[in-house]
Predict the structure.
Amino acid sequence: MNEQLEFVVRAAAIGTGATAVMDLWGLFLKRTLAIPPLDYAWVGRWIGHFPRGRFAHANIAQAPRIRGETPVGWVAHYAIGIVFAALLMAVWGLDWARDPTLLPALVVGMSTVVAPFFIMQPAFGAGIAASKTPNPSTARLRGLITHLSFGVGLYAAALFSHTCSRSDTGRLRSAFRTQPQYFANAGASTKFKSETLPTRLRHPPLACTPPHLPL
């Protein structure tokens, strides 16, 4: 696998895994503290209004619905996660994905909070960094913790990907190491079988002698 393809594959795997970890954290908060996660249908609704030239709303919940907004929102959610994983690898290099460390993942994870604070929340009508919500400080803290979980997910997904790739490489090397022995055994077996055959069968005539034709 060349480095360009490896970059794409690792970015997709790490970004998807990290986003899944963030979603699991949101599910945990919902089950334990009754804190609802973001409705990603709103993300799809926001994107769905782009072709109409509308990029911001007074209240995204009251904006006209868009057909297929829920799947569009979820696909965008995971696509953004993959983009952030690619950004991490672009800054720290492909070697980070091959041997991941925690700090770069946490730095990028916490940095991604810029996107909701300064792009999505104002566009949804919640103001910059949730300034128009009933309790901005709580909303900001929740956002920081959520994106910290994304950073942890980046590290965990990279570590899992790294472990799997090492395991696959080890199996391939083991398989290649057994091949010469296999062929040596096969050759010895063939030689043994050949030596047990009668001489006529071991050394057959190369061709039949043609009969003498009348002139």
In short: Residues 147 and 188 are 62 Å apart (CA to CA). The two ends are 69 Å apart (CA to CA). Confidence is low (pLDDT under 50) at residues 206-215.
